[in-house]
């Protein structure tokens, strides 16, 4: 099976740490890694026309343990070569300048000068389109980890097309709305009954069906395929490594900590978590615990968070901003925590609770959207708008060692039910079936 794998978003963020390396980035990486490991699967990475193949290959091998020798690359390059295109655009810009100045003779002369370059440009476009279409048609399937297909892919009848559906956040949550729904709106408007979709949860499948309609998205072409936590999330038992991590991120020695790790944005409900942590301190008198807040952030929302933290008074030093966490420190950070809190108002899947459980960390999370599908009975689930339930969950975790041990064991067992190998195998099985049925 020959798969053309959309790696454009992934490759644009290979060198980033903050912001770009979010959920879609890691989903892409893990599935690319798994696809490349499968016998009988040939993967071509679809990249931007301006991307440097050598740099991408080096980064994949250096940082992501992907053998670039097992990959082919195809650039989405249908434009004329750069030197000629620059020459043509300069001539065209000069003609437009004459037009704006109403210099009729000069504009007419430029139209004559441009006649031959325009014909050459058209021929180059035509040749490049045919060459690109031929290269694309040499594959059985096109796989997109999130974004809708480019026009050249969409219009190619030789390809079976597959896409992952993550969530409908920009369409349903206040503050995320984009005119037309942005790239997600394009997915909803253009996905067809001939395409095949992988929804990351049953909740996400239902959400997309509301916007797309059952005639274009149904059980025949949409499959629930859960995600998984990466291998770098594991139960760290080396106390020295945990101590080194604490020192690196300035978590006070000798203090327990409740961990929150996510993008600092409104739907993650972090103000709720911090507010109820302070209430928990007031009600219990606990003085040996802090709240550790890590992850990337929205610039505007972080200003609101900082203002709220400044108003905590004597409790201000009980909340610690960790910032962005290096990948290699994740296991120690999760494993050292008393518990992990994730009171999100909406998720399409919800990887962080699964990552925490894979590290053996007790989890408190919301009982809404897809999160109950992820954690099952292995976490404390709360109403993400109930202060009482949140404070009660903090109190139970803090005061009950037996409960912590129980949740840790259940979490490890639950996390073991998810793996990227299982996810990739499920997707590849569907892809083979769809390709074989077409033939």
Strand content: 5-15%
| Backbone structural class | alpha/beta
How many β strands by DSSP?
13
The helix fraction, in percent, is 40-55%
Mean pLDDT: 86
Poorly predicted ranges: none
**How many strands, what sense, and barrel or not for the largest sheet?**
7 strands, parallel
Radius of gyration: 26 Å
| Annotated CATH architecture of the largest domain | 3-Layer(aba) Sandwich
The CATH homologous superfamily of the largest domain corresponds to: Glycogen Phosphorylase B
Description:
This protein has 439 residues and is of the alpha/beta class. It has two domains: 2-79 and 131-228 and 421-438, Rossmann fold, CATH 3.40.50.2000; 239-418, Glycogen Phosphorylase B (Rossmann fold, 3-Layer(aba) Sandwich), CATH 3.40.50.2000. The protein is 49% helix and 14% strand. The chain has helices spanning 8-12, 23-37, 53-64, 82-100, 104-137, 151-154, 169-172, 182-190, 202-212, 239-248, 270-284, 299-310, 330-336, 351-358, 371-375, 387-399, 401-415, 420-438, and strands spanning 2-6, 42-48, 71-76, 141-144, 160-165, 196-199, 222-224, 256-261, 289-294, 319-323, 339-342, 363-366, 380-382. The strands form two sheets. Strands 3-2-1-4-5-6-7 form a seven-stranded parallel β-sheet, sandwiched between helices. A six-stranded parallel β-sheet has the order 10-9-8-11-12-13, with helices on both faces. Helix 2 (23-37) crosses helix 18 (420-438), helix 4 packs antiparallel against helix 5 and helix 10 (239-248) crosses helix 13. The longest helix is centred in the first third of the chain and has 34 residues, at 104-137.
